[in-house]
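We treat protein structure as text, and this decision shapes the records that our systems exchange. Such a record has a labelled line for the sequence and another for the C-alpha cells. The record that follows is passed on verbatim for readers who wish to inspect the format:
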Amino acid sequence: MPPWNPLVGHLYFCYKISSKLPTDAHPQYLPGMARRELPDLGPIFYLDTWPFGPQMLVVASTTGLHQISQEHSLPKHPGLRYFIRPIADGVDLVTMEGDLWKLWRGIFNPGFSAAYLMSLTRGIVEETEQFCRNLQELTQGQILFRMKDLTDNLTMDIIGRVVMNAQLGSQVQSNPLVDGLRMQVKWCTFGVDINPFKRYNPLRPIVHWYNSRRMNQYVTRVIDYRFAKLGSGQGDWEHANRSIMDLVLTTYLSDKPSNKLGDMDKNFKKFTMNQIKLFLFSGHDTTSSTTCYIFYVLATKPKVLKQVRAEHDSVFGLDASRTASLIMANPALLNRLPYTIAVIKEVMRLYPAVSSTRIGEQDFDVVDEAGRHFPTQDFLVWDVVQGIHRDPAYWQKPDDFVPERWLAAPGDPLHPIKGAYRPFSHGPRNCIGQELAMMEMKVIMALTTRQFDVTLGYEELDQANKSKDIRKVYGERGYQVQRAQPQGDLPCYVTNVDS
C-alpha cells in the first residue's frame, strides 16, 4: 500500500502523483504512475481517498483480474448503475446480475456474433463512405477540426444501422434520438460529486425525464415498425438487411407463434428498448475514441502508416476507390489484414477506452502471486486496464507502439502474455460488442488510410490557448481525458493523399 496518513489517508500521495499529470488527464493513469513512483508497490493495492472518493482496491495483475472477472465475477459498482440508469432505466446488460443478465445476454449474443455481423457489412461501409465525404469537404483549405466530433457521429450512425436498421443520419443532420442521448449523458453523474450543487442539481430529474421521453419515443416507433413488418409476414427480406433487433424480434416471434400484431410483451419491449439505448451509448463512444487514436498513431508514425497502406494495396488492389465495393461484395477480405488488425490491437493496448469498477463482497479476497490476501468487502474494486497494459512485467517496451507484438509467434519475447490484454474485459461478462467494434475499425481504416493524410493540430491549439500547464503523459500530447478520448478531441487537419 502507498504511504498512508491517519488524517488524510492517501490523498496527499494521490495529489503528488496527480501534480505530475495534466489537470484534465484521465484518472486511469494514476495507478500506473503510482507504481512507477513506488516500484515495490505491486499490482494490487488499496487507495484511501475518503472523503473525496470511495475506499478502493486497485487490481492490475492477470491473476487478480482473473479472480474478479472469471473465477468469481464481482457485481458492478452502484455508481456505474447510478450513471447508466437515466440512459437505460435501470435494466441494462452492464449492471444486470444473475439469471436476468444471462437471459438477455443470451437473447442478444447471436446478433453480435462475427458471422452475423458479416451479413451487415454493407451498412457499416455505407456509413463510413459518408464519413469519407465529410472528411473530403474538410480538405478544402486548411481547416482545423476536432476528429472526435466526426467519429462520434460516424459510430452512432453505424450502430443505428447495425442494431436497428435505422438510418439516423447524424453525420449530416440533427437526429432526436442522438440529440437526446447526448444531452442525457451530459447530465449523468456517478452520484459521488464533491460539489453539492452538481450532485443534487434540482434540474437533473427534469432534464432526464425530458430526454428519456425523446429517446423512448424514437426507439419505440422503430421497434413497433419492425415488429409489425415481421409479424405480418412482410419482414422476409434478405438476410443482409436484417439488423440485430430484427434477429431478436424474429426469435421472439418464433417462440410465440400465436402472437398477433401489437401483442408484444410489454416487459420484452421495455427491455429491448433499453438495451438498444445502451448499445448506442456505450458502443459509439468507446469505438469513436479508439478510432481517434488510430488516426493519432497513423499521423505520428509514418512507418506504420506506410505498412498499413502497403497491406491494403495488396488485399484491395491499387485503386483505392474500389475498396468499398470490394468489401461489400466480399466482407471476408477484412480478415486478410493481419497488420491492420495488429495496429488496432496495439492502439487499444496503449489507449484502452474503458476500465471497470466493481463492488467487493463479504468473505471474498483477491489473492496475489505471493499468496497475500486483499479483502474486498466494502471496497470499490477497480479493474485498471491502463495499468496492466503498460506494465513492463507483461510487455516488452510497454510505452512504445509496437504492432509487431501481435504478429509474434509464441515463445517470442514480444508475444503477449495470456490474460494481460483486456480492452474488452475477459470472462462471461466481456464486451458483447467487441466483434462489431473490430469490424468498424477495420472498415474505417480500409476506406480512409489510402485516401487521406491526417496532420495533428495540437501546436495551433496550444498557441491559441496560451497554456503553460503540463501537456503530455508518457511523452504523448494526445493523452486520454474524460471518457478516454484524446485531449482536445484530437484537433487536426486532413488532406488528400495525392496532394
The chain has a mean pLDDT of 90. The longest helix spans residues 266-300. The radius of gyration is 23 Å.
